[in-house]
Amino acid sequence: MTEAPSFDVFQPHDHRRCRKEALAAVLAECSARKLRLTPPRRCVLEALLEEHRAMTAYELLDRLREAGLGSQPPVVYRALDFLLANGFAHRIERLSAFVACTHGEGAHEAVFLVCRACRQVAEASLPALARNLEAEASEHAFRVERVAIEVEGLCARCAGAGA
């Protein structure tokens, strides 16, 4: 996948630039892989890129409805399936919610730092941890297919607010 910009979501940054560069990376990847970013898929992706927080399928469905792109759950789930399958988004299991991928290096094992107060999510890539997990699993004759590590805590802003 095309290299997406890297921003620390818990630190102040130019979010307009962040969002614009992330969308450009996805558009370039779709073009390179001949994938179709339909209006509902793009709307869902843009909603995920608006904030660095986990969004539920129903929050995303509201965005689709506001944009006039559908009001039935299958519309949002089809868009999410496309984004997940192509590495443009991730599912945060603990929250039953979704975030845009912020590491555009293709298939990768991610660690998610989830603020329990504001639901902002930072994505980190820990290749050494993934290698260690795979090695440990291999010793037990187990083949790893997917790793999802979610770390819950408080971002600096919420910790400062006494959340």
Could you please describe the fold and organization of this structure?
The relative contact order is 0.15. Helix content is 44%, strand content 15%. It has six helices and five strands; from the N terminus they run ααααββββαβα. The strands form two sheets. It has a three-stranded mixed β-sheet with strand order 4-3-5, with no helix packed on it. A two-stranded antiparallel sheet has the order 1-2. The longest helix is centred in the first third of the chain and has 18 residues, at 15-32. It has 163 residues and is α+β, with helices and mostly antiparallel strands. It is globular, with a radius of gyration of 16 Å. Residues 1-7 have low confidence and may be disordered. It has one domain: Winged helix-like DNA-binding domain superfamily/Winged helix DNA-binding domain (Arc Repressor Mutant, subunit A).
Cα-to-Cα separation, first versus last residue: 37 Å
Mean pLDDT score: 86
Q: Approximately how much helix is present in the residues?
A: 40-55%
Number of domains: 1
In the CATH hierarchy, the third-tier topology is known as Arc Repressor Mutant, subunit A
Give the low-confidence spans: 1-7
- Strands, count: 5
Count of discrete alpha- or pi-helical segments spanning 4 or more residues: 6
Radius of gyration: 16 Å
- Quick one: overall form? globular
| CATH architect. name | Orthogonal Bundle
Largest sheet: 3 strands, mixed
Using the coordinates above, name the CATH class.
Mainly Alpha
> How do the strands of the widest beta sheet line up side by side?
4-3-5
Query: How large a portion of the residues is in β-strands, by DSSP E?
Result: 15-25%
- The SSE order reads HHHHEEEEHEH
CATH superfamily: Winged helix-like DNA-binding domain superfamily/Winged helix DNA-binding domain
Which structural class best describes the helix and strand composition? Answer: alpha+beta
